[in-house]
Design goal:
This protein is α/β, with parallel strands linked by helices. It has eight helices and nine strands. The strands form two sheets. It has a seven-stranded mixed beta sheet with strand order 3-2-1-4-5-9-6. It has a two-stranded antiparallel sheet with strand order 7-8.
Length: about 240
């Protein structure tokens, strides 16, 4: 799915520092990467590959993107039974990484049935049968999905922003869902390849306070400096 990631990076506007103040209404272009059909087909292929050769598929933004987040979480001395939700869990590899780091109260959701089946298979292969994986659209969460101590997003918000139907409305619904699901003072950790720090601060305000910007690789080209991805930790101020 490397082509998917490259396309996702190219579908939204400038991630450089010069592009940080771009108008959010005009800063993205709708794409098939914002549709459920696209991800259903993508994860059907990955599921078949897993059955055929045991390959779990692409780790979005690479293993370093997971390590970056788990390293920060480890510095916070959090209880191993805090409730953590992986939004758009894909192949479930982030949940596997969190489980390896001792966390026990883990849930992953995805609106693709093939993703859910793949994640369950990957986790079962590792002997992790107590991780909760649910088929669910994050933009329409049931009332029972609530009171999480931490929510993690690695690329899902990027894809949602590209919805051909109404990307702006999708972003608004995403923020509303996040406020429903997180407990007061809960943490939200987002990794994005398309939105800058300043843009994410605008999108998630009011309601979310920046706690930490996690270091990510930087680039310089043609006199322009930027980050290949943005990783931020927010706290929900209910």
């Amino acid at each position: 799915m490397e082509n998917d990631i490259s396309a996702l990076k190219g579908a939204v506007g400038d991630s450089s520092e010069d592009g940080q103040n771009a108008d959010l209404e005009n800063d993205f272009t709708s794409s098939k990467l914002g549709t459920k059909d696209y991800w259903d087909e993508a994860y059907k292929r990955e599921l078949q590959t897993f059955h055929d050769i045991g390959d779990v598929g692409e780790i979005w933004f690479g293993e370093e993107s997971m390590d970056r987040v788990t390293r920060w979480i480890e510095t916070q001395n959090l209880s191993d039974d805090i409730s953590i939700l992986d939004i758009g869990t894909g192949n479930g590899m982030f949940l596997l990484e969190l489980a390896k780091n001792g966390f026990r109260n883990l849930t992953g959701i995805d609106y693709s049935p093939a993703s859910v089946e793949l994640a369950r298979n990957v986790l079962r292969e590792e002997g992790l049968t107590d991780v909760n994986i649910e088929e669910m659209d994050f933009l329409n969460p049931p009332s029972s999905l609530s009171s999480f101590d931490m929510c993690i997003d690695k690329g899902t918000f990027d894809a949602i922003s590209l919805s051909p139907e109404d990307g702006q409305q999708a972003k608004t619904r995403y923020v509303a869902s996040l406020k429903q699901i997180l407990r007061p003072q809960g943490l939200f950790i987002i990794t994005s390849c398309n939105w800058t720090k300043e843009q994410l601060l605008q999108i998630f305000s009011p309601g979310f306070e920046l706690v930490k910007e996690l270091p990510t690789p930087r680039f310089q080209f043609g006199g322009v400096t930027g980050n290949s991805v943005t990783a931020l930790v927010f706290r929900f101020q209910a």
